[in-house]
Amino acid sequence: MPVQAPQWTEFLLCPICTQTFEETVRRPISLGCGHTVCKMCLNKLHRKACPFDQTAISTDIEQLPVNTALLQLVGGQELELPALLHCYVCVWCCPLHIYPST
Ligand SMILES: [Zn+2]
Ligand SMILES: [Zn+2]
Asked: InterPro entries in the record, alphabetically (predicted)?
């Protein structure tokens, strides 16, 4: 699979579930290590650690900072999302797909 340069719209997606961040269930939460994942995925983590680099999350999830800059980007755009969002982190996202999105 060819490596593509990330498009800016990819920053508006949760890298785990590949859903667009939004203000309610999928708030973008900044982890201490610099990664951002949506709150829904964060709540489903089996252990409190960054899924990408395993940095332990020592703060309570409710206390972690919301990435408001991202949230504004999401809210301010009519996004044209790629027609095909591939499952590039299958190990993580596919088990999550079985959950209802609400
Ligand atoms: Zn997510
Ligand atoms: Zn991380």
From this structure: Roquin_domain, Znf_RING, Znf_RING/FYVE/PHD, Znf_RING_CS
